[in-house]
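Morning F.,

Quick status update on the modeling queue. The single chain you submitted on Monday has been processed. Sequence for confirmation:
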Amino acid sequence: MGLGKTIQLIAFMLHLQEQGELESPTLLVCPTSVLGNWEREVKRFGASLRVLVHHGDKRLQGKAFAKTIKDYHLVITSYALVYRDEPTLKGVTWQGVVLDEAQNIKNADSRQSQAVRQLEAEFRIALTGTPVENRLSELWSILDFLNPGYLGPRNFFQRRFAIPIERYGDTDSLRTLRSLVQPFILRRLKTDRTIIQDLPEKQEMTVFCGLSAEQATLYQTLVERSLVDIESADGIQRKGMILALITKLKQVCNHPTLFKTDGESASAKSGGKKTKQADTLLIPKLDSFENQSGKLQRLAEMLEEVLAEGDRCLIFTQFAEWGKLLKAYLGATIESRSAVPLWQHVSKTTGGNGRSLPKRSPSSTHFHPLPQGGRGRVKPHPRQSCVSLRSLVEPCGREPSHRSGVSHRANSQRSSAQICLHWHPGGTHSRTDRK
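Structure tokens below.
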């Protein structure tokens, strides 16, 4: 949650090096999207640590890998490659195995979760801002990686802790579980002023935006027509139709154009045929882009206030197409300030096939440059961006449940605007907390 887990691990590695105890390489496993971030941070804050990124088509395998990493202190790889390169990674005696965004192993039965458990090491560390997202079994999975068997088998944990706490609110079981896991958790809170003295209090403001006439008409028509189909369906099909309706309504609430674009994309994917004639008939005639969305009008007002103060703003949206439209719109409306909005779309599967990721450092440099010495706030350069748009979605359009904090680290903005609220509260808080 932006409280220094990265720098704390680097400091720990430097301490081992200073004590002469860094005898073997340590493996760091992280999401693909932050491989470059980890490499840069280690080189910046731990220059004496030799780091190797195990990623890409030309990555070493087998004996060549084992021989090469002897000259390195830290080897960084992704969760996807831990499973794919399991034989190569298992052939090395690691001094430590570190999991960044450890909630990636919350499902103990997943392939990547099973793979990291097979790695032998002297110590194990799990870094996460959300150890529990939905259920206590996720906490068990992380603790079972750190100390196998400490909380007992999974079925025992379910009977003894998960069911009593989640279903019946058993405070005694909760107190017992907390006492068991607390000695193994180093927790940092933003409310602790001994950690961050200059962090201002977070101020959350929920803004209710009315629908434009076109949005309201489209919304109501879409609901009425969809309910007819939903009433005639049952089982998993009914649930799928409800979720699809919710997504379409979120698009309408953003802007009618977004719903139209989504319908056209679906038509293109189906070979040019209209998948649903109703989707095309529902689209009203578009005249003015801004006036057709109450949410967009309020966003424009908020950005005016932010830019007038000389600050930056980070905008989150679920829909990649909406981000592209916003970039074009904001690029025209704030052009007078010479602040070109940045657009960054991060997909869950980016780089998952082992290919090298595109460099993201130019975006980071333009949006949150560091002043002399690397500390404090700076006034944006005329050619630097004051507005950054981020889309954190999976390829199929679902919002990720645990990627919310992965790709927007160390930003210097003081304002965050979430155009599309995350379906999971933890994701929403994670985004707004990252300042």
